[in-house]
Amino acid sequence: MILYLHGFLSSGNSHKGQWVKRAFEAEGFEVLTPTYPIVSPQASVAAIDSVVQHSILNSPNVKNGQAWCVFGSSMGGFYGRYIAQRYGVPVGMINPALTPKPILSAYLGEHDNPATGEHFCLDEGYLSALEPYHTQVDVNQPSLLLLDKDDEVIPYQWAYEAYHGTGEVCVFDGGSHAFQHLDQAWPKMKQFVEQCVTRKG
Question: Is the separation of the CB atoms in 74 and 137 below 8 Å?
Answer without folding.
Answer: no
